Amino acid sequence: MAAGGDWQSALPAAAAVELLHNFSLIHDDIQDNSPYRRGRLAVWKLWGIPQAINAGDAMFTLAHMALNPLQESHPPGVVLKAHELLENACLALTQGQYLDISYEARSDLTLEAYWPMVGGKTAALLATCTELGALTAQVSPDTQESYRELGRYLGLAFQVQDDLLGIWGDAAVTGKSSESDLVAGKNSLPVLFGLSQNGPFAARWRAGPIQPDEVTDLADALVAEGALNYTRSTADRLTAKALQSLENADPQGDGGEALVSLANKLLKRDG
Amino acid sequence: MAAGGDWQSALPAAAAVELLHNFSLIHDDIQDNSPYRRGRLAVWKLWGIPQAINAGDAMFTLAHMALNPLQESHPPGVVLKAHELLENACLALTQGQYLDISYEARSDLTLEAYWPMVGGKTAALLATCTELGALTAQVSPDTQESYRELGRYLGLAFQVQDDLLGIWGDAAVTGKSSESDLVAGKNSLPVLFGLSQNGPFAARWRAGPIQPDEVTDLADALVAEGALNYTRSTADRLTAKALQSLENADPQGDGGEALVSLANKLLKRDG
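Output (structure tokens, whole complex):
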């Protein structure tokens, strides 16, 4: 069987990742004290923290259980490997989340702190998505590795681009400046780069929370210190790596075309 | 291989259940607002709720990962079945926990509400312990079922006995009456039986929290209404079922003797 083949037999793996992602959002909303999710009250806000923790645990369990029907169409070794990949993703997510939470209280972060955190979040989940797809298609180990790399670089490139838009995207700069990552105090890549320069941006950031009316000037200061160029070139580098991995994976058929189209859409968004 | 055989090859399964139990305690302590665990500060009290939720999620993941080394000594089908048993236990635990949390706010509980709650907690975990042991020993399906029943009845009998001691045990009656389940407001089996009688106990219970100086009189009222007899005969019935399942399982060798001795110890404790 080749990648781009029978997509139905991969559905249990896809459901597992989707459930895993949603479980993590239920717990994230408690951890971030976020009252809303997708325009509705978050689980914890509606049912209380104890039930929300428990509902997340139940969905975490269901993510694992979702893999069971793979046994109907795949040899046991593939199913066991799928369990391992899912568990590796879970562990990476908790490692990324640990760093994310502990970074909130710190003002001494360096650029190096960025990669372990984002590597354990979007990138770990997307790498698992693409690798599980390749695993269930039973392609060669080399090709599975290319798919894993594709997901990883896609996740990293997407995250860096998201960081860029969070400061210089339309919503962040114009009108809705309260949506700027600068006001939210997010330790994004441009911010960590700015801190590493120890210039006017770093001095202002360390002095306390940024107010909405400072956003435009502070975003300009970051540009002057090179943060936009650095972030853009990082995104470009990661995008090139993602596209190279996609070429190595060489997806086939209708499914393959859809994947190429999706990857291009994710990598070239303007915000 | 028979039950009572090579215990080392069952260790990954034992580690998985131990990690699962400890994960559940980390989240339980947040849900119950309990500041202490085993005489030390609970995880959430020491590191905050966000990190404690995440640490529990990580340990939940490690419980699943602990099963992986089973692959070195067991066929893939057994390892996949072990994953399924662990996941069934996880789901049962979240179902029991859901009921436990939702019961706290209710004063209309009936005796029937008791079994789904305790069935999803201690009993589900112990049933998984004994079944995983039998599974990894690769005994016949009938014997595996006997081990599962042993664990389930052991868990139920232990829980009912625990409920009995929580009201009529030494610590609950004498001196430390603040440790009485009556003061804690726990929906234990004697309490649910008492409520079903709609007598003096039910009237007092529904009027509001029990104070420590009322514990002796209220425990006596429960005895007069038949709750002690009912709870004791229920514990006896479950104990007999556990011992019958143990006989059916017919454990062998040193391990078998240790199991019989452990079961008897658990079932005959005086508190």
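The interface with chain A takes residues 27, 30-32, 49-51, 53-58, 60-62, 64-65, 68, 71, 76-77, 79-80, 83-84, 87, 90-91, 93-95, 97-98, 101-102 of chain B (CB under 8 Å).
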